[in-house]
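ok here's YqaE/Pmp3 family membrane protein, seq below lol
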Amino acid sequence: MILIAVLLPWLSFFLRGKIVSGIICLILQFTLIGWLPAAIWAVASRVQGKNKADIRRLEKKINQ
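and the structure came out like this:
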């Protein structure tokens, strides 16, 4: 999934259901200068989403 976020940042957002972010990222990726920030944004968003899921899972485990 990180490879998709680096190569096709907009697709990474679409696959996670963030359509508006995906469209903004696609517009940003159309410019040559904007591709790098779009890729960084997609990877950072992916990592943040994974961390939130891990935290929720651990909180659920602790509360049992």
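fwiw The chain has a mean pLDDT of 89. kinda neat tbh
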